[in-house]
């Protein structure tokens, strides 16, 4: 079941995310996040953007959320996407289910485009983004340093709504 995050989901999502900090290049954070820090992030993000969890049999298998691509007002129709799956649950279709749901929410909310930043060499992430129509737009080599190595990133873009639809949907949302 895919649903909006609730307070009780935060510790499971944190455990999932901290695994990536400690074992993966998928995030450039280098120190595990505390429960209070992560809770504050969730609360701040969900004031304006959706945060979805995928739960099966009471177990959080992954989550996806949208955030601000950039703080300047002209970027208000573009969102940043993040998806994390429980590392032991990758390859089971959970990422596709979350991607489909979060894209649909972004369209309904009237966003024009979605950006995702993918770490160099993260081929499964690149594959799912390509599957859902994202295009690789920019490669920035050697941008971050983690686990004693330089890592690049690529920016992937998905167009969600045409420009006229975007303005109309956003204006309805703000009323």
What can you tell me about this protein's structure?
The protein is α+β, with helices and mostly antiparallel strands. It has one domain: Gcn5-related N-acetyltransferase (GNAT) (Aminopeptidase, 3-Layer(aba) Sandwich), CATH 3.40.630. It has 5 helices and 7 strands, in the order E-H-H-E-E-E-H-E-H-E-E-H. A 7-stranded mixed β-sheet has the order 1-2-3-4-5-7-6, with helices on both faces. Strand 6 (135-146) and strand 7 form a beta hairpin. The longest helix has 15 residues, at 94-108.
Helix and strand layout, with pairings?
Elements: E1 2-4, H1 10-23, H2 35-46, E2 51-56, E3 59-68, E4 78-85, H3 94-108, E5 113-119, H4 123-131, E6 135-146, E7 149-159, H5 163-174
Parallel strand pairs: 4-5
Antiparallel strand pairs: 1-2, 2-3, 3-4, 5-7, 6-7
């Amino acid at each position: 079941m895919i649903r909006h995050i609730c307070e009780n989901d935060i510790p499971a999502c944190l455990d999932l995310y901290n695994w990536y900090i400690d074992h993966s290049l998928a995030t450039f954070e280098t120190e595990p996040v505390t429960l209070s820090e992560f809770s504050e992030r969730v609360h701040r993000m969900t004031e304006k953007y959706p945060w979805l969890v995928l739960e099966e049999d009471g177990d959080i298998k992954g989550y996806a959320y949208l955030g601000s691509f950039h703080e300047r007002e002209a970027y208000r129709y573009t969102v940043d996407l993040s998806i994390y799956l429980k590392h032991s649950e990758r390859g089971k279709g959970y990422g596709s289910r979350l991607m489909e749901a979060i894209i649909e929410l972004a369209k309904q909310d009237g966003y024009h485009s979605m950006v995702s930043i993918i770490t160099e060499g993260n081929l499964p992430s690149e594959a799912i983004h390509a599957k859902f129509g994202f295009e690789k737009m920019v490669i920035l080599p050697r941008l971050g340093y983690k686990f004693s190595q330089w890592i690049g990133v690529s920016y992937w873009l998905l167009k969600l709504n045409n420009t006229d639809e975007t303005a109309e949907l956003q204006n309805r949302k703000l009323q």
